[in-house]
Write a structure and sequence with these properties.
The structure holds 2 protein chains of 2 kinds. By secondary structure, chain A is α/β, with parallel strands linked by helices. Chain A has 2 domains: about 15-260 and about 460-480, 3-Layer(aba) Sandwich (Aldehyde Dehydrogenase, Chain A, domain 1), CATH 3.40.605.10; about 265-445, 3-Layer(aba) Sandwich (Aldehyde Dehydrogenase, Chain A, domain 2). In chain A, about 35% of the residues lie in helices and about 15% in strands. In chain A, strand 10, helix 8 (about 240-250) and strand 11 form a beta-alpha-beta unit. In chain A, helix 9 packs across helix 10 (about 310-320). Chain A starts with about 25 loop residues before the first strand and ends in a 16-residue tail after the last strand. Chain B is an alpha/beta fold. Chain B has a single domain (about 10-280), classed as Aldehyde Dehydrogenase, Chain A, domain 1 (3-Layer(aba) Sandwich), CATH 3.40.605.10. In chain B, about 40% of the residues lie in helices and about 20% in strands. Chain B has helices at about 45-65, 65-85, 85-95, 100-120, 125-130, 160-170, 185-195, 210-220, 235-245, 270, and strands at about 10, 25-30, 35-40, 130, 140-145, 150-155, 175-180, 205-210, 225-230, 250-255, 275-280. Chain B has a 5-stranded parallel beta sheet, sandwiched between helices. In chain B, strands 1-3-2 form a 3-stranded mixed beta sheet. Chain B has a 3-stranded antiparallel beta sheet with strand order 4-5-11. In chain B, strand 2 (about 25-30) and strand 3 (about 35-40) form a beta hairpin. The longest helix of chain B has 20 residues, at about 45-65. Chain B is globular and about 85 Å long. Classes of the chains: A alpha/beta, B alpha/beta. Chains A and B meet through helix 8, strand 18, strand 19 and helix 15 of A and strand 5, helix 9 and strand 11 of B.
Chain lengths: ~500, ~290
């Protein structure tokens, strides 16, 4: 058979960076004002190029005191006493503002974080807007949450969010806190400070009263000072389990409500009766969405032995077609790793997998010459004791193991100290429901993966953290109920 | 002719059996006048570990029992407690200066508390779960599930009512429990005897008597314990146990203020020891299904 050579390569389709209107310098947002912080300047780098994107002024300890005091004032004088209906309208305004600046936010997020523009455009930004819209509606309906007739806000919430979904995590944290009548002091990750500052502009444009949301900028030491600040009534953290443990330890004995959304080692379980091509798509989405830099990533593949060989062949063929590269290119499937430090952590775990005897397969997709990139990687011949099967890799790396029976699949999937997510692929409804019940994970996706919605609670079992975000349970994390009397807040150094 | 009494040794309750402490240690319980009331087992670290193993085993069957079944068992516990009312009144008056009226009221309240939670078991899911109206062709629901093995430090003060008020919500949602108490061991162990005749599967509730500060730190750090109720600990012990629990990201429940167990219980304790699980399932496209497109 003669063949005519067809060029199936996609032409580059880059989004314009100008849409992001990225400025050279950004400032923290405290008490309704963007003002120079007292910490040293910090450059934020675009992971897709490795080049400086902008400089941010970081916050010092004095800024932290001012922010907590401003948040306390705003909570006691403005936001707390305000009617739920009025609070709700501010949140609706913010939701609209995010939607209206969606394209700009998507570009800013992709430039600062390194994830593909198609993800920020189609997922991060619209879902962030939806979170504000959803929670806006709760603000005047707190009595219907099932927490008693008159649930009360906790007060001032200190929040620290990670770099993998900078805008969306800001929305997950801020929207329920505000709907419940709390005020917020929040710190984004030092590698992704920009999108939350655009969000702060949107809040300022929405005339959100000063001090209701305060954004501090800085690294882990500032986050540590924030979460242990005695002037807070609530702490919420999303990030690594290691840091979550430190926070839990440092808050021990304070009685301060804490929610932690930490790491995971999610299992994606493929049965022999599953629609194989759909399952391939789900496994790909599960571990290569946002380059696997997702706490609920399906980073372990458990495939039934009878179909393992065929399934892996299909999976590798599909992964081979993923386009890895320029995050700003609308055709890019897998973007950049967020930072050189994260790339080094992933690479170290991949090396550990090889040295422990697993077989690594890597996509042959060419990688850009600059920026931080890693080829999608699939490990086979892995065992449950290997580091790649136990530790969160937080990168585009899948660890494959096999099973014979549903019970074995459950035992292997639950064999982890984590418990955030799991996926099940089967055409048999009773098996899907039975597996969903048996898996010790906060979210179970049957014949789909990585679905999120503000109406659906999200959070972990075991060492994946505690507390929920989204849904009624997410609101409960920011409210005090009738049978939990209020503790007196401690005064801040700057006074309230 | 007088009958010479047969005094009882109050032993531990682990896995449905009443063993002595593996350490062989006991301590004396004295009446208000200083006379010996009984000897009780002084639990050790190893007893604590055995209790966690038993609880993990008990969790398997109890968490899978139907809510109706769990409700019936909790109600059975109320029936059994009612039948031992006079025994508990005698125990509550022996160890303190409480009059028999007050002791009787405490037992009655404890019976009612068990009945209250017996009625919760098949409502927790409906009250704290939800069908989620997500933006996409998916059936999504969130439902509470038991957290796992919960270590409860029995509240100080009301020896029976506090204990029942702490344990019942833990059991109602399907958790297994290790109860540690440094309160009157006679009350706690007699309650264990009540439970042992209530069809509660072995290991679902385990009772250890002794010194909190000796055993609790090991359980707070134990990797197979999922949650702690620190009601019975003083502020210093609460802080150190919460710190011990941090490495394994345990759920730690500490009541704000001093709980009033005579008040209606609310839901904070119920909600403290459940995990909300969200399940997503695609909804297939059917021309006549309606509602998903317009």
């Amino acid at each position: 058979m003669t063949s005519t050579h067809l060029d199936w390569d996609y032409a580059p389709a880059p989004e314009s960076p100008a849409i992001g209107a990225v400025r050279d310098r950004y400032l923290p947002f405290v008490d309704g004002v963007f003002a120079e912080g007292r910490g040293p300047d910090l450059d934020t780098v675009s992971p897709g190029t490795g080049e400086r994107l902008a400089t941010v002024s970081t916050s010092g300890r004095e800024d932290l005191e001012l922010a907590v005091a401003a948040a306390r004032r705003a909570q006691q004088q403005v936001w707390g006493p305000m009617s739920g209906a009025e609070r709700s309208k501010y949140l609706f305004r913010i939701a609209r503002g995010v939607a209206e600046r969606a394209r700009e936010l998507a570009v800013v997020e992709t430039l600062d974080n390194g994830k593909p523009i198609k993800e920020t455009r189609d997922f991060d930004v619209p879902t962030a807007a939806q979170h504000f819209f959803y929670h806006a509606g709760w603000a005047d309906k707190l009595q219907h949450l099932g927490l008693g007739p008159d649930p009360a806000p906790l007060g001032v919430a200190g929040q620290v969010i990670p770099w993998n979904f900078p805008l969306l995590m800001a929305a997950w944290k801020i929207a329920p806190a505000l709907a419940a009548g709390n005020t917020v002091v929040i710190k984004p990750a030092e590698t992704t400070p920009l999108s939350i500052l655009v969000l702060a502009e949107i809040m300022a444009d929405a005339d959100l009263p000063p001090g209701v949301v305060n954004v501090l900028l800085g690294a882990g030491d500032l986050g540590s000072a924030l979460v242990t600040h005695p002037g807070l009534d609530k702490v919420a953290f999303t990030g690594s389990t290691a840091v979550g443990r430190q926070i839990a330890r440092s808050l021990a004995g304070t009685g301060r409500p804490l929610t932690l959304e930490l790491g995971g080692k999610g299992a994606n379980i493929v049965f022999e009766d599953a629609a194989q091509d759909q399952a391939v798509e789900g496994v790909v989405n599960g571990v290569f969405f946002n380059g696997g830099q997702v706490c609920c990533a399906g980073s372990r593949l458990l495939v039934q032995e009878s179909v393992a060989e065929e399934f892996l062949a299909r999976l590798q063929a599909r992964v081979e077609t993923l386009r890895v590269g320029d995050p700003m290119d609308k055709n890019t499937d897998v973007g950049a790793i967020n930072s050189p430090a994260q790339l080094a952590r992933i690479t170290a775990l991949v090396d550990a997998g090889v040295s422990e005897g697993a077989t690594a397969w890597r996509s042959s997709c060419p990688l850009p010459e600059r920026g931080y990139f890693l080829s999608p990687t699939i490990f086979t011949d892995a065992t449950a004791s290997m580091r790649i099967a136990r530790e969160e890799i937080f990168g585009p790396v899948l660890t494959t193991m096999t099973f014979r029976t549903p019970d074995e699949a459950v035992a292997k999937a639950n064999n982890t100290p984590y418990g955030l997510s799991a996926g099940v692929w089967t055409e048999k409804g009773s098996r899907a429901m039975g597996m969903a019940a048996a898996l010790r994970a906060g979210v179970v996706w049957d014949n789909t993966f990585n679905r999120f919605d503000p109406a659906a609670s999200f959070g972990g079992y075991q060492e994946s953290g505690f507390g929920r975000e989204g849904g009624r349970a997410g609101m409960a994390a920011y409210l005090r109920t009738d049978d939990e009397p209020q503790l007196a807040p401690q005064p801040t150094e700057a006074g309230a | 002719m007088t009958h010479l009494g047969v005094p009882k040794t109050y032993k531990l309750f682990i896995g449905g059996a009443f063993p002595r402490s593996e350490s062989g240690r006991t301590f004396a319980v004295r009446r208000a006048d200083g006379t010996l009331a009984a000897n009780a087992a002084l639990a050790s670290r190893k007893d604590g570990r055995d209790a966690v193993v038993a609880a993990r085993k008990g969790f398997g069957s109890w968490s899978r029992a139907t809510p109706y079944n769990r409700g019936q068992v909790l109600y059975r516990m109320a029936e059994m407690l009612q039948g031992r009312r006079s025994e508990f009144v005698a125990l509550l008056t022996q160890g303190s200066d409480a009059g028999s009226d007050a002791a009787g009221a405490e037992v009655d309240a404890a019976v009612d508390r068990l009945v209250h939670y017996a009625g919760w078991t098949d409502k927790i899911t409906a009250v704290f779960g939800s069908a989620n109206p997500v933006s996409g062709p998916f059936f999504s629901y969130s439902a509470p599930e038991p957290t796992g093995v919960v270590v409860v430090l029995a509240p100080t003060g009301s020896a029976l009512l506090g204990l029942v008020s702490a344990v019942a919500p833990v059991l109602a949602s399907g958790n297994a429990c290790v109860l540690l108490t440094d309160q009157d061991p006679c009350v706690a162990v007699t309650f264990a005897e009540t439970v042992a005749t209530s069809d509660l599967p072995g290991g679902v509730l385990n009772v250890l008597t002794g010194v909190l500060a000796e055993v609790a730190p090991h359980l707070a750090a134990h990797a197979d314990v999922n949650a702690l109720d620190l009601t019975g600990a003083d502020p210093t012990l609460r802080a150190s146990l919460a710190a011990d629990a941090a490495d394994t990201v345990k759920r730690v429940y500490v009541p704000a203020g001093t709980p009033d167990f005579t008040a209606p219980p609310g839901t904070a304790r119920l909600r403290a020891f459940v995990e909300i699980k969200t399940v997503w399932h695609p909804v297939g496209a059917l021309a006549l299904s309606g509602g998903t497109s317009y």
